[in-house]
Each structure stands twice: as C-alpha cells, then as structure tokens.
Amino acid sequence: MRRIDFITTEVQSVKWFMDRIKHDTLIIDQSFQRKFVWRIKEQVRLIETILLGFSIPEIYIWMTETDPDTGESTYSLVDGQQRLTTVKEFINGKFKLHSGYLDDEESTIYANKYFSELDPEDKKAIWDYPFSTRVIKREIREEDIIKMFLRLNSTDKQLNPQELRNAEFGGLFIKLADEISQHPFWEKYRVFSSSQIRRMTDIEFISQILIFLREGITGETTQKYLNLVYDKYNEKYDEYENDKKNFLKMIMELDKIMEISEENADFFSKRTHLYSFLIIIYFMLEKGLDISEYNEKIGNFIIYYNDKTDDLNISKDEKRLVSDYRKYVQEGTQSKARRIARVRLLKSYLNI
After folding, report:
1. Boundaries of each GmrSD restriction endonucleases N-terminal domain copy (predicted)?
2. What's the rounded Cα separation, in Å, for the pair 352 and 349?
3. Is the dihedral of CA 313, 315, 318, 322 positive or negative?
4. Radius of gyration in angstroms for the set of CA atoms belonging to the chain, rounded to a whole number
5. Which of 70, 163, 196, 294 stands the most exposed, by the fewest C-beta atoms within 10 Å?
6. Which residues lie below 8 Å from residue 154, measured CB to CB, with a gap of 6+?
7. pLDDT tens digits, residue range 34-82?
C-alpha cells in the first residue's frame, strides 16, 4: 500500500486537542520542532482567525500506540505545534488580543481581551473550532514521518535550515550541541536573544565550533556542509566526550577573560569575535599556555579595536594586526578565507 493509504482526514475540535495535551496522549514531539517560535503578533492573528471562523491549515498527528484495554490512542504531533501551542497559551491567559495586531474591523470587540474576558459564546467558538486533522496510522515508520515533516516545511519561511536539521537528525552530534547550549555561559553574557534561541541559532553556532574540533579551521560552515557533518556524526561519534570536555574548557577560559571588564564581555558577546577567540583559546590550551598571562594583551587588543587609541602599550605591528583583523570582520564573517585570516592574525598578535 502507498503511504497516503495510511493517512486519514478527520475533524477534531480545539477541546479534543487540549484534552489530549493535558492528559499526555498528544505529545508535542521535540524531535520534529524543538522550540515555540511565533511572536505575539502571529499568535493574536491566529486567535482572531479562529474567532472570525476562517480556516486554518491542517494539523498532522501520528498515532503511535493504542492501549489494548482502554482503546485510548496516543498521538505525536508532527505539524501544528505553533497553532496548538498558541491556542493553549491563549486559553491559559498567557497573552491578550492586542488591538494593534488585530487585522479585521469585526475583531474590534475582542481588542485587548484575555480568554477569560471573552463572551461565553466566543469562548465556546474557540473550544468548538474544528481543526482539519490528518491522522497518520501507526504503520507508518518514523523515518517516513521525518521525510513528511521536511516536505511540509521545506518551503516554509518560518523554519530555517537548523530547525530542519533538528527534525532530520536526532543523533549524537545535535545531542552534544544541545547539551552545550544548556551551559550557563550563553545566558550569562546574553550571546543569543530569546528569539535566536527559539530559532536554534545557538545550536547552529555551537555546531560550527564542533566542526572546528572535528575538521580543523579549514572546515566549512555552510548549511550544506553542516548537513553533511550532522549525517556523518549522527549515529557514531567516538570523540563525543572529548569534544565536550574541550568545548567546556574553552568557554570556561573565555569566561574568565570576559569577567575582567564589561568591555571584554561586550566584545566577546558578538559571535564573530566569540568564534575567533574560542578557536584561539583551543590552540593555547593545546600548547599548555597559561591564558591568564595574556589578559593584558587581549584587553589592549579589544581597546584598540574599539577606540584606536594610542595610549596603550601596543606596538605598531600589533596595531596593524588589530586593524587587519577589524577589516576582515567588516568585510564579512562567514567566509572561510576571512575566518582563517582572523585566526591567523590573532595568532600573530598573541605570538602563539
């Protein structure tokens, strides 16, 4: 039989979905989409659409098992996380229908209201709203579910390449990147905004550093190459623990430098500098150098980079190296050649 023969179309109410989420019989599967993404404007527009009675794109759920005694089925949410999470949060009073985001004249009666403030008939309209639902039978394999999710979202501008990788690869490489992303370092210095974290920018950046640990400074960081590396280390990653140990050492040493001054912290919170100096710290650790002995030199680098002041213990050659580094930052950050050049200049400046 074809895959489509194992997919049925049903109509399920908001109440049906909310009950199953509440009782853990509908699981929002993080192996497909890791984090909630929608902004408040998009959330308000969805609730407005429901209240006006307009249609919403289909929800896809996968029937994973059925209790033989009760007949109760458990489902995994394949596509529709943003919609269902939005409805759940609105019902739970997490946001109101901001008037500035409502798009239709008919909606003025809902302006600035929480769910609890809606008229009884409007509340019922939300509970009863019919979602067109594609139910995928348990006979469909998980790898086919992943392919389906990728096809559903490959042209969706709301999903970036890293979010699609998260759905396609659930193995060791992304597991390590996710584990490192939980380290307090990132939040302490606000390297990534909350929206960037939701869009998995942090995971992608950490993956690029892990690529350096595996492939060296000449390793690519393009989206295509990231996909290849994710695939290569998805099931077998012998260096997992060693890379984890090295990465944590690198951010621990950089943390010490960032704590010296606010200027240091601000400088390294920019990802271009963060990437370059994490690589430099790796080389310093490999050589067994005492990184604290370089604190003044690194501090002078940052001051001259920011201000070009002459009132520093810094030679003409060192000033030239800082200026060249600045040029490679301004010309672009993602190019492999520029990335290598920045690291080379830092090595020369620090004489390592």
Report:
1. 27-169
2. 8
3. positive
4. 25
5. 70
6. 164
7. 566 677 888 999 999 999 999 898 899 988 888 888 888 899 898 888 8
